[in-house]
Write a structure and sequence with these properties.
Length: 259
């Protein structure tokens, strides 16, 4: 009986710790669905599952029903900075609209069907496809177009300028159309010196496993993450990263002085 009581005490202690960690995971706003699933599986392997010592990730893989899914979730938790989707290499149709200032208000002009005298004489090789209606017949444009409300051009963009935040190092994309190339060149010159002095970007993805469990996470991340991954200078744990809303002050640039 005393042996059973001594064995039950550690199990009860682990169960209480597991409940506390699970509560923290569910209330952590930084964890999305995949990250929460990974954290719960590792917590189960650490506190509940009867696995082998030092084989926590193997037990977590069984809980996730697949080693391949564990590999993907751990690689996705590698701490890094991901720029916004608007900073990608978009084509003219998918890029954000031109943000140059608008000189004349935008006026909605509905498309008019173009007909010709030879339209009835044409011989169709195949029946025309069924037209796809993107709006109802009684569609009316908004009272105030967003281009007029924001005072921007809004045309299809072809030129991209990337600005780096001087405090966080995060990327701020700017897009311009063909008619506003001069604005793109002007903004490029304005942000050149600022981008050179910008700090390393604060990570905005991953880093949750080190926030809950102690391990040699750099070695783990190097095994699962892509070869190009490098540990950020801010640390591996998301708890150690500066708050983007209140980043550290900008350090002045060092200048060489003549001796």
């Amino acid at each position: 009986m005393p042996a059973n009581s001594t064995d039950a005490a550690p199990r009860l202690d682990r169960a209480e710790k597991h409940a506390e960690v699970v509560h923290r995971i569910y209330t952590d706003h930084r964890a999305n669905g995949d990250a929460r699933e990974l954290l719960l599986a590792v917590a189960y392997a650490v506190f509940i599952a009867p696995g082998e010592p030092g084989r926590v990730l193997t037990t977590a893989a069984k809980a996730l029903r697949g080693r391949r899914r564990l590999d993907r979730l751990v690689a996705d938790d590698a701490p890094r900075y991901e720029p916004p989707s608007a900073a990608g290499d978009w084509g003219p149709g998918g890029a954000p609209g031109c943000e140059a200032p608008r000189l004349r208000p935008y006026v909605y002009r509905p498309r008019v069907k173009v007909t010709g005298p030879q339209e009835g004489e044409a011989v169709l090789l195949r029946p025309p496809p069924t037209p796809l209606l993107h709006a109802s017949g009684g569609f009316a444009p908004p009272h105030v177009d967003h281009r007029n409300a924001e005072g921007i051009c809004g045309a299809n963009s072809h030129h991209k300028v990337l600005e780096l935040d001087p405090r966080t190092g995060w990327t701020i994309p700017h897009w311009f159309c063909k008619r506003h190339v001069d604005h793109a060149e002007r903004v490029t010159g304005q942000v050149r010196e600022q981008n050179e002095a910008a700090p390393e970007p604060i990570p905005n993805r991953g880093g949750l496993l080190p926030s809950y469990f102690k391990a040699h996470w750099e070695k783990v991340y190097r095994h699962y993450a892509p070869v190009s991954w490098k540990p950020p200078s801010y640390g591996l744990s998301a708890d150690d990263w500066p708050d983007p809303g209140n980043p550290p002050p900008v350090r002045p640039r060092r200048r060489l002085r003549p001796v």
